[in-house]
Amino acid sequence: MKLLVIAGPPSAGKTALVKQIVRRLQGEMRIAFLKIDVVKAFEDIELRKEFNIMTRKWYSGDLCPDHAGVMIMADAIEWAASNYSDLLIIESAGLCLRCSPYLNQGLGVVVLSSISGIHTPEKMGAMVSLADIAIVTKIDLISQAEREVMIQKIKEVHPGVILMETNALQGTSLHHLYALIKDSPDIEEENLSLKGNPPLGTCTICIGKKEIGWKHHFGIIQKLDGQTAEYLYRGE
Amino acid sequence: MINKITILPGLDKRGLREKFDQITLAAGETISIVGPTGSGKTAFITDIELLAQGDTSTRRRLLVNGQVPGDDIRSNPSLKPIAMITQNTKCFADVSTEEFLGIHARARGIQNDMVVYETIDLANKFTGEKIEKDNKVTVLSGGQTRSLLVADAILIGAAPVILLDEIENAGIFKREVVRMIQDTGKIVVFVTHDPVIALLTQKRIIMENGAVKRIIHRSDLEVKAAHNLLELDTRVDIIRERLRAGKMITKELTAVNFA
User: pLDDT tens digits for A138-187?
Assistant: First the structure.
């Protein structure tokens, strides 16, 4: 089974892209789809209705969606494999820019809207810098010069990424993506791990204490002004 | 170096194959794309810009110098032989004009820093209100944005193929633009509703229902007509600029006889 993990901010065009991929590869592959979201998601119903493929969704609710993703991805892979899928597509919630949901196997795709602003590639951190492929959507809405400025910004964040531009509603210029998916090796389920480093785990806020101020909490290691432990990642 | 672009037929809006074998655009040629709104003019030049390989809504295919172009020239701006001015009159990038052009020059692999200022100077020849290098591109007017993008296409895009989508709508000095890019040995394609621009080009591709309907080569008679029309257009321009400058019309219109 092949694995495709798709990340990107809300409204970037992740689902439109998924639809193009399913439309194109459905004839030659049995496809399963999982959507991870926080509060509400419709993609599973939409895709099942439109293409009659196996779909699931999972709400992370109180849990951080990337954390939730890590926990249930293995379940989803087992579900898809036991249903004889050839390709599992996982669409992330795309909310937190600290983590990236990509695994050491399969393909990681980041979807960015061309109207999301010039600094977005830098702000999206690991979601961009650890992706195998970056797809810029909505290219019909901006000038060619601005598209190229956006691409340049992504390249400066992640020089090795495979870049593509598309109007995802029409599915333009995606032949290369379909070929990369078809050529990607099958995953070995026992050797899957995250590409990036997840953030540090628990603190008293994480477990639900609401009082503000240092005296009510422990495990919190950064002040507005003041020291941060040396070994911590502090952005940039 | 590009000396020709070949367009292979796709499908019209009903899914029927277009009725031409191939259309070849050669270096030094000027072409206009004409036809009613919704007939597929913009889709036609977008196919050229994307170097479509049957993977756009029209299913057309493009060849560069008779060859299928590689994925690298399709997705790497520094290798892309095509500059396109779309109808967009808005930039979303939150940077100054100077920075915007600087990043674009990097994307196109240009080393010369002066190109940024040359581009702003050229843009200011196409537009009434001057663009300053410190202006954010997000606050430029529609006309200023398009002037900047046209100048950018000429000097930073600096591509052997230039595609222009309805430049007459931008409120910019269109004859200035046409003069700048004709006779440069480039392939220049105008999508246009403007009779002056249409008659200034050597070939007209007529669109209908998403497909190429006909290709017309400009006749000698049309060359003469173009000159007359240009003269008329110049006079209309003088009047337009007087009105834009807040002046009154005194005798220009009373002396004109359009009959």
Answer: 998 888 889 999 999 999 999 999 999 999 998 888 988 999 999 999 99
The DSSP string of A26-83 is TTTS-EEEEEEESS---HHHHHHHHH--EEEEEE-TTS-HHHHHHHHHHHHHHHHHHT
Q: Say which CATH class B89-158 falls into.
A: mainly alpha
Tokens 């200023």 -> residue: B144
B177 within 8 A of B150, measured Cβ to Cβ = yes
Q: Which residues on B lie below 8 Å from A174 (Cβ)?
A: 55
Residue B203 has pLDDT above 80, yes or no: yes
Domain ranges of chain B: 1-81+160-218, 89-158, 221-259
pLDDT in the model for residue A219: 61
| Cross-chain CB nearest to B49 (options A118, A144, A171) | A144
A174 in B contact zone (CB under 8 Å): yes
* Mean pLDDT of the region A192-216: 78
Q: Is a pLDDT exceeding 90 seen at residue A16?
A: yes
Q: How far apart are CA A115 and CA A120, in angstroms?
A: 10
User: How many Å lie between the alpha carbon of B42 and the closest alpha carbon of chain A?
Assistant: 10
| CA A39 to centroid of chain Cα atoms | 17
B1-81+160-218: CATH topology is Rossmann fold (3.40.50)
Q: What is the spatial distance between Cα B26 and Cα B18, in angstroms, rounded to a whole number?
A: 21
Rounded to the nearest angstrom, the minimum Cα separation between A182 and chain B is: 17
Indicate which of A143, A147, A170 best probes the interface with B, i.e. most B CBs within 10 Å of its own CB.
A143
Residues B106-152 pLDDT 10s:
999 998 889 999 999 999 988 878 999 999 999 998 889 988 998 99
| A vs B: CB pairs below 8 A | 88
